[in-house]
Amino acid sequence: MNRSTNTSEVQQATLYYLGPQGTFTQEAAVQGQTIISEAIGIECELKAVERAKTIVDCVEQGHGWGVLAWENNVEGTVVPNMDALVDARKVAGFCKLSLDIVFDAFVRPDHAELTEIRAHAHGLAQCSGFIHKHQLRPVAASSNAAACRDLAINQVGLGPSICGPLYGLDTLQEAVQDFQAAHTDFLLLAQRDQVKELVQKCASRIRSENRLPAFESVIAFIPLQTGAGVLANLLDRVRDAGLNMTSFMSRPIKGHDGTYSFIMTVDAAPWEAELKRLIVDVIDRGVWVKTLAVFPRTPRANPPVDQWMLPVGGMTDTGHGTDDNFSGRARKELLW
Amino acid sequence: MNRSTNTSEVQQATLYYLGPQGTFTQEAAVQGQTIISEAIGIECELKAVERAKTIVDCVEQGHGWGVLAWENNVEGTVVPNMDALVDARKVAGFCKLSLDIVFDAFVRPDHAELTEIRAHAHGLAQCSGFIHKHQLRPVAASSNAAACRDLAINQVGLGPSICGPLYGLDTLQEAVQDFQAAHTDFLLLAQRDQVKELVQKCASRIRSENRLPAFESVIAFIPLQTGAGVLANLLDRVRDAGLNMTSFMSRPIKGHDGTYSFIMTVDAAPWEAELKRLIVDVIDRGVWVKTLAVFPRTPRANPPVDQWMLPVGGMTDTGHGTDDNFSGRARKELLW
After folding, report:
1. Nearest to B315 among A224, A283, A305 (CB)
2. Which chain B residue lies closest to A306 (C-alpha atoms)?
3. Domains defined along chain A, listed by start
4. Which residue is closest to A81 within chain B, CA to CA?
5. Do residues B39 and B200 touch, judged by C-beta distance below 8 A?
6. pLDDT digits (tens, 9 = 90+) for B98-120
7. What is the pLDDT of residues A190-216, one digit of tens each?
8. Do B79 and A79 touch (CB under 8 A)?
């Protein structure tokens, strides 16, 4: 009896995302809905909220799960969302999903001559080539979704493909963004005491698709001592544990300029021996530690860095013993 | 004769900033104008351009100097601007300036009943408490400056204080932002071959104000080998050189997911012995290096990290040998 009550409660689960309807975050939420259905066996309904902070609060209060933008490969980490997870009492991420950022251009079926283009300021900035080519006057909106919803007959709207069916618009042209390889990673959030079980369920789903089962974790460290070498000592322990790190950043502790936390993404789960040993070791040395997320590791490129990938300028080893112009180039590239 | 021609050319120097007029970047540009006048003895005129990339291009082509948003203590590093400096051929930063982000609320002198509030979407988000308190309907604009310029009689506009005199508006209330300690750091940009001289002139100005003369540098590193420990080995050399690092982040090389550059801020100038030795050492080991900026070190807080500054939750050393609940807390905070 108890059990069936629990099940029926869980079946009414809600997945909170940053609204309004028709945003990229809704596209991510739809992806999250599928993962939760396939890996966990629960159908959840989507609910749009107005602020990212509200998503964390709803999960914290046990109202459901959440989907939160984490990192864009052009704009970088979504820092306020990362801060929100550092500050959350009992919420962590259990799955990472990746969304290609593709803008389509829409018009109303009854459109007149097109003279304006409407989108969020970021959307306008990311499609500047298209706007310039068609000589349209940019009009800023509070979101791409709102732009498409409130489109006038002389306007082109920019937004994710779901805006077409959602607002009854015709697609004028697909994929009109300037940069073709932009993507945003999102985290699915749950209460901390559910995370380990959820991660393992998500990992089984990946395993059954014949991919490598393994985990990644995002961990926050705050050394209570400051000074030269604190970070090097911390990373020595990561290296000596043989752990591969794929992302790292320092971040001022909010409201305390001059103090730092370090946020690291590492190829292991916190319950695996190497990472567990590392964490105990640094805690013993007076470092504050909190795990922000654990998720199944997704396949990724790991190309060698070739000369053609390097930015222009800069310097690397060219056998400078015999390089007559070493000091001239050093003056320019290194500002000696 | 030649000399006076040069001087008169230089006196027509331009400082490029991201427009339109009335943005926070213009406030920063005005600060930059003062520094350039006092430290370098040159009066430059301000010129607003539409895109950050254009600022770098104008400096690159020798048309003048630039001011570029670098980091906000709430939003983090302005990643596209950092990427633009990594990719620039012959532009680097020579001075860092810091601007408090303060939003004032403006109305037209002939205003009617106030029912709406108008600003850039970020401005609306950063003043949500004020908007909520006064029950105003938010209206998004392409920039805070445009919002204030085009204000209707039933609207409150949000923007930096310069918007008042600039657009003939009355100040309804000062400092209406939610977070009172937000600030944005900007870099002044010049051609690389001028940077060392300009930094030293800016440092003399600081020295004459009786502050500690010293430098900071922002340096990009790309290890050509990847794998566990590459970063730890790099940071060991920074520690062993006794250099204090104040900011660090990894960043995918643009368009090459899975490859990384590392951007470090360190308390030294590249022409000082310790940093110079470090750079030669890592170049010899096959690391690509480029200096992005050098600037006089400004005074900053360096408080110890106390318990009350730590985020909620997490774990640190509590003599867990005798802590009965260590494993329970570890399960929750570390996701063991």
Report:
1. A283
2. B224
3. 10-100+182-201 (3.40.190.10), 104-173 (3.40.190.10), 214-296 (3.30.70.260)
4. B75
5. no
6. 999 999 999 999 999 999 999 98
7. 999 999 999 999 888 766 555 554 899
8. no
